[in-house]
Specification:
By secondary structure, this protein is α/β, with parallel strands linked by helices. It has helices at about 15-25, 55-75, 100-110, 145-150; strands at about 10, 30, 80-90, 95, 115-125, 130-140. Strands 1, 2, 3, 4, 5 and 6 form a six-stranded mixed β-sheet that branches. A hairpin with a 2-residue loop joins strand 3 (about 80-90) and strand 4. It starts with 7 loop residues before the first strand and ends with a helix.
Length: about 150
């Protein structure tokens, strides 16, 4: 199935997002941002003080789309829509970010073990003078995990 003959830019490093676009037949070019520790200042993924989880994930997805449009102009690339997304976990009202180390990953999995949490994904699309977004929430339940499973 081929969704469109028009190309888009994907403002994401995520292999999963690339795979999903391939699956639905959307032709795209990857638009890369700088990775840590030299990330681009206009796409700050730090949570703001008191920021709600849904507001956070929408803000980051929209910033990536807007930043993508700016990079297209600065790099003098062909103008085409810019698609971006951001996903985060919410547990007890807290944003659970990407693990910073194996020990941090084990801590996160331990907190999720035997519990339900929300996965929030915001998708943003910028084209010409338009920027729109959608937010999806999913509830994920983990069965209890043993310490050995968490380490593995």
């Amino acid at each position: 199935m081929h969704y469109s003959s028009h190309r888009i830019y994907l403002a994401s490093r995520s292999p999963r997002r690339r795979e999903l676009l391939h699956q639905i037949g959307v032709p795209f070019d990857t638009l890369l941002f700088r990775a840590p520790p030299r990330e681009d200042a206009d796409v700050c993924e730090d949570a703001l003080p008191g920021e709600a989880v849904d507001a956070y994930v929408v803000r980051v997805a929209r910033a990536k789309a807007e930043g993508g449009v700016e990079r297209v102009a600065l790099r003098r690339l062909q103008r085409q829509p810019v698609l971006s997304a951001d996903t985060t976990l919410e547990l007890d009202g807290e944003i659970i970010g990407k693990p910073e180390s194996p020990a941090h990953a084990e801590d996160i999995l331990g907190r999720l073990s035997g519990r339900a949490h929300q996965v929030l994904t915001a998708v943003a699309l910028a084209h010409q003078d338009s920027l729109t977004h959608r937010l999806n929430r999913s509830v994920v339940r983990f069965r209890p995990l043993s310490a050995q499973e968490i380490r593995r």
